[in-house]
Amino acid sequence: MCHFSAHAIAMGCLLLSTKLEETQCSLRHLIGSFHYVTVHLNQTQRSSKYEPPCRDSSELVDLRDTMVVSEMQVLKRLGFQVHVTLPYALLVNYMQVLGLTDRKLKVTVQSYDDPAEPVADGRHESMPLAQCAWSLLNDALQTPLLCIFGPHVVACTAIALAAEMCTPLVRLPLHPAPWWLLFDASEAEIKIAASHLLWRYHHSSSCTDLAELLDRRELQRYIAGRSADSDVRQHDVHIHRSR
């Protein structure tokens, strides 16, 4: 892998990931997209117009060969094991074991018409606890959780957060042993994973035009501004303990 650049490996990873989706993406579209991004990042003037090369140009042929070879290198390192286990099935089984599938267990959440503008405090919605945990898993796909923790830890995290939000309060069993040990998870892992997921809800971006981040200089300014921002909110999760 040391003989391949980060750009080439990124191309191979993207090509491989598209093959795992229900809707296939053509190789021609991937090559064209990578060529556009590469030109956009390397050009000196943002205002210059992009001119795509001919389909049979040597430049696109080289990109195609690089993408295919890089994909094979990634597959070799993975041992051709590309099966991904999502936590949804585990969540259903775990909630059945804990007895949390009763629709009478409700979670009250605040609704948003516009994510940028929270609504008044008096507007809330109720949903079953199981539906809330399922929605948390959907939002976890927008975070690096599934790349950091196993699916069993992510499922336990969704259960812990949903139980915290339930009304009346749901106390998960801690005796004779904490409930997460039954699912091969630890309290520390659940707390860290929950912090990642909560950051997803409380993080606000100061960048109004995401296309600007394609420019390296704009991206560096954005990261520098985020690191210097002292108003970034940090949230911890509290897991119920027996009294």
UniProtKB/TrEMBL annotation:
Residues 1-25 form the signal peptide. Keywords: Signal. The keyword Signal applies. GO terms for molecular function: cyclin-dependent protein serine/threonine kinase regulator activity. One of its GO terms (biological process) is regulation of transcription by RNA polymerase II. InterPro entries: Cyclin-like_sf, Cyclin/Ssn8. This is Cyclin. It comes from Pseudozyma hubeiensis (strain SY62) (Yeast).
